[in-house]
Please model this.
Amino acid sequence: MPPTLTRSSPPQTATGPGRTAAGWAVAGAAAMLAAAVAGELLDPPSTVDLVIANESGQEVTVVVAGREGDPQLPVATVDVGEERPVAEVLDQGRTWLITFRSAGETAGELEVSRSELAEQGFRIVVPATVGDDAGPGPAPAEAPEDAEG
Model:
């Protein structure tokens, strides 16, 4: 007898009302879980509104980080004797490392807890002493000696 090809039917699955409802329930629960996780991941980061008061004798740029080695976030440059509000600064967490820079150099640092900062109304005061220990400036240029004398 010669071989004959027969076409097989696809496997039959149960598609009764109970099976479909259970499938939709599982799919719905999975979708709700995915939406909840995505919502948590997509929440905007926590921010605070700062006020920076510069009591030093030089223009100062204020930079913040969570702790040593964390990425630094430049916040604002504040002129001598001025106070500047800065809205929606990324919250640095439990510890804030505040760096004061002047003329491109670190002029001072301050480490403060978030709770202390909150007690101060999120007001950062640049101390009058910032930059005092930066050392003396370059030595003055000497006048050339008189070639005739």
User: Anything to note?
Assistant: The chain has two helices and seven strands.
